[in-house]
Amino acid sequence: MGDNARAVYSSEAGRIDDATARDGGSSRQGSQGSPSPGSPDGIVRVSRTKAGRKGKTVTLVTGLPPADLGDIARDLKRLCGSGGAVKDGVVEVQGDHRDKVAAHLGQRYRVKIAGG
Predict the structure, then answer these.
(1) Considering its fold, how many domains does the chain have in total?
(2) Burial (Cβ within 10 Å: 0-12, 13-18, ≥19) of residue 84
(3) Residues 6 or more apart in contact with residue 101 via CB below 8 angstroms
(4) What CATH number is given to the structural domain containing 84?
(5) pLDDT tens for each residue of 51-103
(6) Neighbours of 111 (CB within 10 A)
(7) Dist CA 52 CA 10 (whole Å)
(8) pTM of the model
(9) Does some domain include residue 37?
């Protein structure tokens, strides 16, 4: 690489930030502002889908830390007054409750409403 060129992405480690590039590519553990273990970028995403559910609308919450999934799913189902489940690290709540879920989770996490 030239004098002003630097690696910004590695297929093994993903995105390489400036601090990692300067210290020779050491691990990101212990860095300030590290993302939550549930999401590579630390953002909890709330979306809505009907795909594969026979036309029924479901609110999906992704990017939560794995240790919190059960408790958060229980809280969200109670908040929305509907059923739901945790599947493959994703909390599913029956119905379109994106705004209510995002407002509730916004007290503890960085939240974005994803999708259209």
Answers:
(1) 2
(2) buried
(3) 46, 59, 61, 76, 79, 80, 93
(4) 3.30.780.10
(5) 888 889 999 999 998 988 999 999 999 999 999 999 999 999 999 999 999 99
(6) 19
(7) 34
(8) 0.65
(9) no
Domain containing 76 equals 43-113
Please give the C-alpha separations between residue 47 and each of 55, 73, 81, 90, in angstroms, as whole numbers.
Answer: 16, 15, 18, 11
Examine the domain organization and report whether 51 and 97 are in the same domain: yes
Shared-domain flag, residues 49 and 26: no
Report how far apart, in Å, the C-alpha atoms of 98 and of each of 39, 44, 60, 78 are. 19, 12, 8, 14
- DSSP 8-class letter at 67: G
Listed as own residue / partner, the contacts of 88-92 with beta carbons closer than 8 Å and 24 or more positions apart are 89/38, 89/62, 89/64, 90/60, 90/61, 90/62, 91/60, 91/61, 91/62, 91/64, 92/58, 92/59, 92/60, 92/61
CB environment 41-78: b (16+ within 10 A), e (fewer): eebbbbbbeeeeeeeeebbbbbbbeeebbeebbeebbe
